Amino acid sequence: MTDSTAEMVRADNVHKSFGSLEVLKGIDLVVKPGEVCCVLGPSGSGKSTFLRCINHLEKINAGRILVDGDLVGYRERGGKLHELGEKDVAKQRRSIGMVFQRFNLFPHMTVLDNVMEAPCRVKRESKAEVRERATALLERVGLSSKIGNYPGQLSGGQQQRVAIARALAMRPKLMLFDEPTSALDPELVGEVLDTMKDLAAEGMTMIVVTHEIGFAREVGDSLIFMDGGVVVEQGAPREVIANPQHERTRAFLSKVL
Amino acid sequence: MSEQSTTERARPEAIKAVPVRHPLRWVSIAVIAVLFAMFVHLLLTNDNFRWSYIFVSYEEGKRGVMFTGPVLEGLRGTLLLTVTSMAIGIGLGTVLAVMRLSPNRILSSVAFVYTWFFRAVPRLILAILFGNLNILWSRIGFGLPFDEQIGKLFGIDDFNGQFYSIRAVDLLAGFVAGMLALGLSEAAYMAEIVRAGLQSVDTGQSEAAVALGMSRFQVLRRIVLPQAMRVIVPPTGNETIAMVKDTSLVAFVPVAGELWFQLNNISARTFVVFPVLVAAVIWYLIICTVLMIGQYFIERHYGRGYGASARAKQRLRNIEVEQGGKITTGEAS
Ligand SMILES: Nc1ncnc2c1ncn2[C@@H]1O[C@H](COP(=O)(O)OP(=O)(O)OP(=O)(O)O)[C@@H](O)[C@H]1O
Ligand SMILES: [Mg+2]
Question: In this prediction, does ipTM exceed 0.85?
Answer without folding.
Answer: yes
